[in-house]
Amino acid sequence: MSTTGATADPLAALGSLPGVAESVESVRKAVDRVYGHRIMRRRSNEITSEAALRGARGSGALSGADWALEEVRRRTDFSGDDEARTMGAALRLTAEAGQLLSVWRQSPLRVLARLHLVAAASDSDEVGRPRQEGEPVDEPLVELPLPSAAEVSGRLDGLSELIIAGSSAPALVTAAVVHGELLALRPFASHNGLVARTAARIVLVGSGLDPKSVCPAEVGHAELGRAAYLAALDGYVSGTPEGMAAWIAHCGRAVELGARESTAVCEALQRGAAQQASRGPAQ
After folding, report:
1. What is the Cα–Cα distance from 88 to 77, expressed in whole angstroms?
2. 50 or 276, which is more confident?
3. With helix as H, strand as E and coil as C, how does 214-280 read?
4. What is the pTM of this model?
5. Helices 82-97 & 192-206 angle (0-180, nearest 10)
6. Residue % of the chain over a pLDDT of 70
């Protein structure tokens, strides 16, 4: 994404693209439904924990570790094969994201470096810094042309400046741009997809749209499927108004599906509480 142009707030300009306002409104309604649920008022910590687990599972699936939720819940060792390590990285990133909210608006590049460090869990000198010219990138599921290290550096700086400056753009727009830009750039030697989705989550939570992190967009992206995810990303990379609007709409739909997932969790907890009440006090 180019950060130059006639407007001082290019992210806000994206909000006026065809269909984006409708996506923003639809997301707001979906999020409001979760936060308005009576279970959220009493058991929000449980919903947050469950959303974190399901979000990590979804993000792992998009990076090639498509495990059943109960398998993710059951596992304690994620040091085995590549899929296990990918899922372990997704879980670590989900746990780390909440610790970085206050840093994001002041130093997004520092946050991205930290996310890569957490994901890679390695002491390699490639970890926690943008890749250098000639270094390979292990991101087999994203087959777009790889920008040069110099382009990566310039565009990361531009993205950081946008975040620090702030924008009147809706949170969905900002999150979609952060997500798309990191996937397009693949700035690190590995784990770029996981980092990109975690950074988008930080935007959605830190903006106040989803302050309790109960609307995991990663669930929605996984449900919509990898093929649709990559097709929408092609639209972002094209830079056309239609392509950008389609990517933002896709990201919006993913948030809606994440919200629907947590609404279903609320309903299940409510049914459980109702069944417990109907049995009466233990004798």
Report:
1. 8
2. 50
3. CCCHHHHHHHHCHHHHHHHHHHHHHCCHHHHHHHHHHHHHHHHHHHHHHHHHHHHHHHHHHHHHHHC
4. 0.93
5. 20
6. 94
